[in-house]
Amino acid sequence: MVPGILDRLRGMSIVHADAAGVTGGLKDVEGRLGGLEREIKEWREALEKVEGGLKETGGKVQGIVERVEEVVTGLEGRVKKLVM
């Protein structure tokens, strides 16, 4: 009976050692995931800033395009008056 108990205790010792290794691995994975989550958050914030800047710049460019069109239209009118 005692040899069976000893064998069982040895087997349980191996299981416990494996479980400890798995627990350490899980903690490592959790740490890495936390780091990745922080990086993703930083990238999203940076992307939002870039998108905001692009929208602002797009609005400014559109205003400039409209102004240039007005100037060109005015110049065309002047040229037509000079030619006639």
Index terms:
84 residues, mainly alpha, 1 helix, rod-shaped
Outline: rod-shaped
The count of strands amounts to: 0
Quaternary state, please? Answer: single chain
Strand pairing plus helix content: what structural class?
A: mainly alpha
Q: What composes the largest sheet?
A: none
Fraction of residues in β-strands = under 5%
Helix content: over 70%
> What's the average pLDDT?
91
Flag low-confidence runs.
none
Cα Rg: 36 Å
Number of helices: 1
Span of the ends, CA to CA: 121 Å
* Order of SSEs: H
Explain how this protein is built:
The protein has 84 residues and is mainly α. Helices cover 98% and strands 0% of the residues. The longest helix has 82 residues, at 2-83. The radius of gyration is 36 Å and the shape is rod-shaped.
